[in-house]
Amino acid sequence: LDGGCGRTIVHRYDMLSGPIYPCSVGLNGIDPQGNVKHQLRATASGTLEIRLVYNGKSTNVTLQGSMYVPGITYTLVAERDLGEAGVDVSKRNAEKNLFFEKQGQIIWKYEIARADHGGLYVFEDYMKDSDRKPRFVWDRVESVLFADRARRKASPPGKASHQSHILCTK
Questions:
Q1: What is the C-alpha to C-alpha distance for residues 130 and 10, in angstroms, rounded to an integer?
Q2: Contact 107, 126 (CB under 8 A)
Q3: What does the pLDDT look like over 143-164, one tens digit per residue?
Q4: CB under 8 Å to 31, separation ≥6 — which residues?
Q5: Pairing mode, if any, of strands 105-110 and 97-102?
């Protein structure tokens, strides 16, 4: 599965944090016969925060530009996004071991034959939902700003116009 730009794909909308933008991005997938399929569509993009644990030490990694795709079962992390987040990925021992390193320190290690999961590396994300940064849904704010602008343009010069306000709780 590929978002056309090699981005991380999340399976739960509530995993995204920071500014959330609506999108409509078709995803390319290859079926068992080798045919390219366009059956899934990303509907939002934002930031995915993950927490990796290695030798009792946890490290948070922030992946920008992650996309939410309704209907998938697992989150698919793009190696490219890890690199952009400062995580170096290295494969050793005939790809039986995979290491994530940040600033020269190992932050995660995979030690099982990759063939056990259909050629994918599986890792646990220890980030609790309550620890994720709050979502900031831009399209809601944008719609209020556009409505306010339209009201100001419609009101006579020198007259106060009705304006909306957004309550920020965090």
A1: 17
A2: no
A3: 776 777 777 677 766 666 666 5
A4: 37
A5: antiparallel
